[in-house]
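Ligand-bound model needed. nickel (II) ion.
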Amino acid sequence: MLLEEMSYTEVEAYLLEKDIVLIPIGSVEQHSPYGIIGTDFITAESIAREVGRRLDIIVAPTLPYGMSQHHMAFAGTITLSPKTYVEVIKEIVISLLEHGFRRVVFINGHGGNINPVKTAFDQLKYENYRGIFEIISWYLLQKVQDIENVLYGDLNGYHATPSEISITKFIRPKAFRNKPKGEKPVEKVETYWPLSKDEFRNVYPDGRMNSAPWLAKENDGKLIFEEAVRVIIENVRKIMEKEII
Ligand code: NI
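Prediction:
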């Protein structure tokens, strides 16, 4: 159920039965020459919408912009500062709580979002907002990582992974018509974190982080997508059963 396609009367009727909402979040950032800039929000959005469809629960519009400061040395990246992102997340949650939602679950596709989202949750609780606030990062789920490991082993890496690129190939195949296909060396770079945008580009000159995105395949994407949906459904069902204190 997509919030953007509902009327307020339908939302009011939903709230008599259920109090959960999913919100896809990601980033608008470079994903190497092989991957597309919308990767992180497109993966999160497609997974969240499928979970919402199968569980008959509301999915709010995607928040595409995330915390991507370390990718700003690459053209096309758009970032929010952590401070702004915390406020945006807080105000989205507060809006939903005001209408009677009590379980707000962010389906996340981007690592840089995790710290600010958790900070927003801490602050909401400090301000005594009632409800369950969760973030589920699909690529961190153990069963998803098990599949990635079988498919790509060490070559999955940490950014512009063949796993996330496979999902976007499955969801948006036309976007890949003119992307490069040639292989490059995969260097195992040991560094520190966080990195400034210039440090990032020095260490990872084409935007990959220890990954081999040319291995991405539509069929792998379907497999990984299905597993992420399956595991997130299990997690969301548990969240729906929790008692709100
Ligand atoms: Ni990504």
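The helical segments are 8-17, 39-55, 82-99, 114-126, 142-152, 162-171, 197-203, 218-241.
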